[in-house]
Amino acid sequence: MIPLTHKDILLFIGDSITHGGRGMSMDLNHILGHGYAEMVCAQLAADNLEAMPRFVNKGISGDTTQQIISRWQTDVIDLRPTHVSLLVGVNDVHADLALPAEEATAGYLSRVERMLQDTAAALPGVRLILCEPFYADVRNQDAPFENIPHPLCEKAFRFANTVRDESRIREIFFRIRMLQAALPDIAARCGAIYVPLQDLFDRAAERVPMSYLIWDNLHPTFVGHRLIADRWLEIVGKHL
User: Fold this and answer.
1) What is the pLDDT of residues 10-25, one digit of tens each?
2) The pTM is what?
3) How large is the angle between the packed helices 166-190 and 101-122, nearest 10 degrees?
4) Calpha distance 203→58 (Å, rounded)
5) Nearest to 229 by CA among 9, 8, 18
6) Residue 133: left if φ>0, alpha if ψ -120 to 50, beta else—which one?
7) Which domains, ranges and CATH numbers included, belong to the chain?
């Protein structure tokens, strides 16, 4: 159990994986989205019921670090959270494929470190959590809905983001691994808790098809979100 107090505000920020389809208004049925962030917050709220901690989801679908850093002051620091969890990276890789890998990686890492350092400077005592971006290859789906954890029931559903070009997938994996290799050092320099995730999906995919966990190379199914939430609670719980 992670102990929290009435003064605690946990803020999650990132791209669509954190966004989780959240409502963009004060509709408390959807305000935290329906992904790993909501699962973590629900568990922590129930575990600390009398303390009544508060939770914020500021994930926005499609965001890169360039977009997130532009709203960091208003969406993070101005809300004065006691805990900040950041998960971002795969959109940076896609957006910067035209740049040399070293240049794109350096820009991403610099922005992540700046966001963490600015938060620590502005909010003394804040707890920082940095989550590892991840990627999967689920091209080999002749019947693409056969292995997902919910049967196809909506006619309009489609795989909107699945990359199928093998050379492009190899390049994305290469660049994702560059980010993954450098992020633990950034977390250590900034005093952040690092939550690895790629190994989580790779090991689970030894037991079930990856498409049961991640449906379009990028986005987890609700099963994948549960795995992320459990890993987040496990790793963060060891440090708090």
Assistant:
1) 999 999 999 999 988 8
2) 0.94
3) 30
4) 29
5) 18
6) beta
7) 9-135+183-207+222-239 (3.40.50.1110)
